[in-house]
């Protein structure tokens, strides 16, 4: 009888924990497609931070955001890797990115999501440089699609 209180407390504590998500549950974590879709609105501000604090006018390089997303959709843990960025610039980049993190919100899921979001920055003065809509298909692009023939 003497141990009944503490045992009850442990059982009650375990009962209060959220149910673990099954690995095959589609709503357990965010998919790569979900991350791309829901993080897209935040890309311009990430880019602005990197351009202003990462490498300056001679910007070209990589930035890798490492996130753990809480089941509520808020960022639980944040880190980044920016190879080639000098130590003083790295501190400024860190400060800029960390100011953005509280505003990031992704869809709620049953479990934590671990994600790495890669960015590649390349400055070029070439005419027409930038993303170009295209189509690639082993059977050929349908007419009317970028790269397709009539």
What descriptive keywords fit this protein?
150 residues; alpha+beta; TolA/TonB C-terminal domain; three-stranded antiparallel beta sheet; 4 helices; 31% helix; disordered N terminus
Q: Could you explain the architecture of this structure?
A:
The chain has 150 residues and is α+β, with helices and mostly antiparallel strands. The chain has a domain at 24-119: TolA/TonB C-terminal domain (2-Layer Sandwich). Helix content is 31%, strand content 18%. The protein has four helices and three strands. The chain has helices at 4-16, 32-39, 43-54, 87-100, and strands at residues 60-69, 75-81, 113-122. Helix 3 runs antiparallel to helix 4. The chain is flat, with a radius of gyration of 22 Å.
Quick summary:
Helices cover 31% and strands 18% of the residues. It is α+β, with helices and mostly antiparallel strands and 150 residues long.
Topology of this protein?
Elements: H1 4-16, H2 32-39, H3 43-54, E1 60-69, E2 75-81, H4 87-100, E3 113-122
Antiparallel strand pairs: 1-2, 1-3
**CATH fold name of the domain at 24-119:** TolA/TonB C-terminal domain
* End-to-end CA span: 85 Å
Going by helix content, strand content and strand pairing, the class is alpha+beta
Count of DSSP-assigned helices:
4
User: What is the count of β-strands?
Assistant: 3
List SSEs in N-to-C order: HHHEEHE
Low-pLDDT stretches:
1-24
Give the DSSP E fraction (strand runs of 2 or more residues). Answer: 15-25%
> Percentage of helical residues?
25-40%
| CATH-derived architecture of the domain at 24-119 | 2-Layer Sandwich
| Main sheet: strands, sense, barrel | 3 strands, antiparallel
| Rg computed from alpha carbons, rounded to a whole number of angstroms | 22 Å
General form: flat
Main-sheet strand order equals 2-1-3
The CATH class name of the domain at 24-119 reads Alpha Beta
Arithmetic mean pLDDT: 75
